[in-house]
TrEMBL record:
Single GO cellular component term: extracellular region
Protein name: L-ascorbate oxidase
Reactions catalysed, as given in the entry: 4 L-ascorbate + O2 = 4 monodehydro-L-ascorbate radical + 2 H2O
Keywords: Copper, Disulfide bond, Glycoprotein, Metal-binding, Oxidoreductase, Repeat, Secreted
Location in the cell: Secreted
Organism whose genome encodes this protein: Hevea brasiliensis
Cofactor: Cu cation
Length: 605
């Protein structure tokens, strides 16, 4: 059969898609592939093309056996050691249904590094020890050891997981979690097919080398990434290297991701970003996207041509394949908010029956102006909870904590701080220290609820850039309503303020408002959206702006709240909340074994 015949091409593109899905661990296709004849592939593919067979999944316990390794990979054609899960980066997709219990047996096969994996957006109600935050909720898993994460996925939506020890996320340790609705419940929007897209930025230096630079004098920043990845694939220009041996432009690992669509059909794209640094603009050339979900919450639908997405966020958008079907289109991601020095990330939106690799006849867009803060702020503000699914916030809060975000120095080292405190975590993780009453494990004094509002000029480099290291934590009254006002400021560079995506573990919060400039304590609170605020777990703080959040401190445990830029978190841009520690059940001894719990009886694999 000639490869130009449509049915062959359907099989080819379908095979590519199905192989990807197979690789993503979607078990229902594995069986189809066991007898890999063309007929079976065709049937499996046609079924696959008809609809992802998600609705038949039943609530249950899902077991995953994962091995974490360093392996040579070439996601952008450049060969480097990446952290893989079962040989893959991005790792396997966890596909589950609301109410399922997830059990991940994580074996750390790294020879010299610890590991922890965070389940980003999963609230861990009743299982705070499974949050996977090294130094906060567990001792990291040591080389050669194993830890079992067990938790319930209690809310349908699109989530992610990633390394939360050191800077391992950017070494490739990340993936997607999809939680489907219970049987018989349907989404408030319709679509024909469901597809995942995970975005990342990619560096050629190892995360270890980057971490060393961040904690050195003189300071060496990670800099702009070499590539942008769509579903783990990007393209570095190998000819830029003086020693090109490590870079092979024809390596199939760096052929662009292909998303095959059938003309006239509507696709739900579940898009997540786990970039180390970059804020992104996502576009599908010539196609409108209707935003319908953000971080697991339904969005009052709105149409965009480019979707701004910050590290740690997820969105679902609906896209109809309604353009000229005789060609393919570019899917592009571009850096925004920092002066781009990274080429556009590319994938192919392939209209069946065109050849999946057929390049679109156009030049890919370079995206919106990188410094157009106004348009990014406008899209943040446009995000509202969907009518019929609004969970209104309490009208007042019990406590407001204002966090001034600054770049600082401590003993000559570059840091980030909140209200002048830069977080260093204790050797005994907070959750264990609090539960076991190890009061000498960290400074018991509370950090400040605000900063010197009257005299601090957010538009200038601070007069005194020195901050203090601290491991103090915010202790919240259980069941109280807490407001957080994130206040941005100038960095240590004149006329510079950066975007910080803030992520809260263990909760979702209402996004009450955004503004530019200094938050006004007497008037800005009156402008909060208390009618239909979206609930999210990650939210941007725009340059020189403020972002106001409200959440209920109703999940017993210890929870990190931090900037999702990996280097900024590494440099101390985080705070810790404790609530209801007395309600936390007995901690599994498997999370212990470091700091003051070094001698605890910890099971070894
Ligand atoms: O933390 C950072 O450091 C650099 C720069 O401010 C100093 O090199 C930068 O852009 C960051 O985000």
């Amino acid at each position: 059969m000639s490869s130009s015949q449509p049915i062959f091409r359907l099989w080819t593109s379908c095979f590519l898609q199905a192989t990807l899905d197979y690789l993503e661990g979607q078990v229902h296709l594995i069986t189809s592939f066991a007898n890999s004849t063309k007929i079976v592939i065709g049937v499996a593919c046609l079924l696959k093309l008809r609809k992802n067979n998600f609705s038949t999944v039943e609530a249950r316990t899902r077991h995953y056996d994962w091995e974490v390794n360093y392996e040579y990979k070439s996601p952008d054609c450049y060969k480097k050691l990446a952290i893989t899960i079962n040989g893959r980066t991005p790792g396997p997709t966890i596909l589950a249904q609301q109410g399922d219990t997830i059990i991940v047996k994580l074996q750390n096969n790294l020879l010299t590094e610890n590991v922890a994996i965070h389940w980003h957006g999963i609230r861990q109600i009743g299982t705070p020890w499974s949050d996977g935050t090294g130094g906060f909720t567990q001792c990291p898993i040591q080389p050669g050891e194993k830890l079992i994460y067990k938790f319930v996925v209690d809310r349908a939506g699109t989530y992610t997981y990633h390394g939360h020890y050191g800077m391992q996320r950017e070494a490739g340790l990340y993936g997607t979690i999809i939680v489907l609705l219970p049987n018989g419940v349907s989404e408030p929007f319709s679509y024909d097919y469901d597809r995942n897209i995970i975005l990342n930025d990619w560096y050629h230096k190892s995360s270890d080398e980057q971490a060393t630079g961040l904690s050195s004098i003189p300071f060496v920043f990670v800099g702009e990434p070499q590539s942008l990845l769509i579903n783990g694939k990007g393209k570095y220009n190998c000819s830029l290297l003086t020693t090109p041996g490590a870079c092979n432009a024809t390596n199939p690992q760096c052929s662009p991701h292909v998303l095959t669509v059938v003309p006239g059909k509507t696709y739900r794209l579940r898009i997540g970003s786990l970039t180390a640094l970059s804020a992104l603009s996502f576009e599908i050339e010539g196609h409108d996207m209707t935003v319908v979900e953000a971080d697991g919450s339904y969005v009052e639908p709105f149409v965009v041509r480019n979707l701004y997405i910050y590290s740690g966020e997820t969105y679902s958008v609906l896209v109809k394949a309604n353009q000229d079907p005789s060609r393919n289109y570019w899917i592009t991601i571009n850096v925004v908010s920092r002066k781009p020095a990274t080429p556009t990330g590319l994938a192919i939106f392939n209209y069946y029956p065109n050849h999946p690799q057929k390049p679109p006849p156009t030049v890919p867009t370079t995206g919106p102006l990188w410094n157009d803060t106004t348009s990014r702020l406008a899209q943040s503000i446009a995000l509202k909870a969907r009518q019929g699914f609004i969970d209104t916030p309490p009208l007042t809060s019990d406590r407001a904590i204002v966090l001034l975000n600054t770049q600082n120095k401590i003993d000559g080292y570059y840091k980030w701080a909140l209200n002048n405190l830069s977080l260093t975590f204790p050797t005994t993780p907070y959750l264990i220290a609090l539960k076991e009453n190890l009061t000498d494990a960290f400074d018991q004094n509370p950090p400040p609820d605000g900063y010197d509002f009257a005299s601090y000029d957010i538009y200038r480099v601070a007069k005194n850039v020195n901050a203090t290291s601290s491991n103090r934590i915010y202790r919240l009254r259980f069941n109280s309503t807490v407001d957080i006002i994130l206040q941005n400021a100038n960095t240590m560079t004149v006329n510079n303020s950066e975007t910080h995506p803030w992520h809260l573990h263990g909760h979702e919060f209402w996004v009450l408002g955004y503004g530019m400039g200094k938050y006004n304590m007497s008037s800005d609170g009156k402008k909060y959206n208390l009618v239909n605020p979206i609930m999210k777990n990650t939210v941007p703080l725009h340059p020189y702006g403020w972002t106001a959040l409200r959440f209920q401190a109703n999940n017993p445990g210890v929870w990190a709240f931090h900037c999702h830029v990996e280097s900024h978190f590494y440099m101390g841009m985080a705070v810790v909340f404790e609530e209801g520690i007395e309600k936390v059940g007995n901690l599994p001894s498997s999370i212990m074994g470091c700091g003051e719990t070094k001698s605890y009886n910890r099971p070894r694999p």
